[in-house]
């Protein structure tokens, strides 16, 4: 196996493709699709998005200090792509994509009603990087569509059918391979009992098979003995 050496580049894939909504007071709300987005702190809950200075939404987010990260799924993939290649200077993106502005709970910027999860954010810091500026924000509130909750009131990733972005392409998420900590977790007592019972059943079957095999050979042995007596 050989590996090629490439020039520095963005190779951290797959990543989420999210629609970020924002709004100036008295203006039509806008949506920008962002791929450079991620969690950066647990307590307080914080995330970041990276936006180019020339984007229409850049100044809106910088001036208002607010935005909503809207998670995207299979149903929203077309809108996600379209909002990433069209400018709010020329289009009302909510109207063009038949999306519904959703009133937020903690900030003024609206979320997207059709999105399974809306993350309301307030900007805490802006870091100039290069092609993009990094907006560091605190999560003020999370709105979750109850259609995507399971019986334990947990967010069901499979039901939500979220999408990921990789090298210019959109993908649906694949099968579940494990959960956090499963590699070191102790096996449940119930699992041990099931395996123990299965092992005992297998041993019992093997024992019965051996006994049956031995009983079939016995008549042959007696017949052989009788034959020897006649010969004597």
Condensed summary:
With 232 residues, this protein is an alpha+beta fold.
Sheet having the most strands? 7 strands, antiparallel
Unreliable residue runs = 220-232
- Strand percentage: 25-35%
CATH hierarchy: architecture of the largest domain: Roll
Instruction: Could you tell me the CATH topology label of the largest domain.
Output: Pnp Oxidase, Chain A
Classify the oligomer: single chain
Task: Say how many strands there are.
Answer: 12
H-E string = EEEEEHEHHEEEEHEEH
Distance between the ends: 75 Å
Counting helices, strands and paired strands, the structural category is: alpha+beta
Report Rg. 31 Å
Average residue-wise pLDDT: 88
Task: Sum up the overall morphology in one term.
Answer: elongated
- Give the domain tally: 2
Which class of the largest domain in CATH terms? Mainly Beta
Task: Describe this structure as you would to a colleague.
- With 232 residues, the protein is of the alpha+beta class.
- It folds into two domains: 15-172, Electron Transport, Fmn-binding Protein, Chain A (Pnp Oxidase, Chain A), CATH 2.30.110.10; 185-223.
- Helix content is 30%, strand content 28%.
- The chain has five helices and twelve strands.
- It has helices at residues 56-64, 77-85, 93-96, 157-160, 189-231, and strands spanning 15-16, 18-22, 30-34, 37-41, 46-52, 66-70, 101-102, 111-112, 117-128, 132-144, 163-166, 169-172.
- It has a seven-stranded antiparallel β-sheet. Strands 1-11-12 form a three-stranded antiparallel β-sheet, with no helix packed on it. A two-stranded antiparallel ribbon has the order 7-8.
